[in-house]
């Protein structure tokens, strides 16, 4: 049985990273082999260019940074696919949905943004962490990196809604991330536990008609 591919998406400061670590620990203790990915993966050569851009240490055209974010996923796509085929569950902190939502929020056309990620391994389930931009700001930390501005986050949230509307309830679920860590963890676990061991043998391709 192949591994499940679970993506966690959401606005900045929605608590994704904490919950992804928690989910990894729970899967491991339930005996499910699991590997965590995080995009952008700032450790690769491409990832270092992205990191420098996000920390405003370099400037890039919107199109150029968009393509680097996508290339950063493609450079790990084969590893993700092989892990899934070997039976390892892959949990991913952000994926192509962040890629499209953040770049389209800056004004690039949505379909242009989607094209470079078309054909990546498709998640079996995307768990979207929904939080109002006001609540995210109240958690602290906004403003340290590019994109951490309330108006942009509002537009990103609308664009995530557009992307979500293309998936059925089996493939995309929304979690209210404004609640306590324990409540959110409980709901994430409910979705993950229902999926692991029940995925179809084939890994689908994202955004391929
Ligand atoms: N981001 C993330 C993008 O703009 N495009 C992408 O493809 C991805 C994966 O990078 N504000 C943005 C969203 C975040 C920022 O992410 C860094 P994180 O999870 O804070 O490291």
TrEMBL record:
Record GO terms (molecular function): ATP binding; dTMP kinase activity; nucleoside diphosphate kinase activity
Pathway(s) it belongs to: Pyrimidine metabolism; dTTP biosynthesis
Family recorded in the similarity comment: Belongs to the thymidylate kinase family.
EC number, as in UniProt: 2.7.4.9
Keyword Kinase among UniProt keywords: yes
Any single Gene Ontology cellular-component annotation: cytosol
Domain Thymidylate kinase-like per the UniProt entry, residue ranges: 8-185
UniProt keyword Membrane, yes or no: no
Protein name: Thymidylate kinase
Enzyme class, spelled out: transferase
One Pfam family from the record: Thymidylate_kin
This protein's UniProt keywords: ATP-binding, Kinase, Nucleotide biosynthesis, Nucleotide-binding, Transferase
Species for this entry: Mycena indigotica
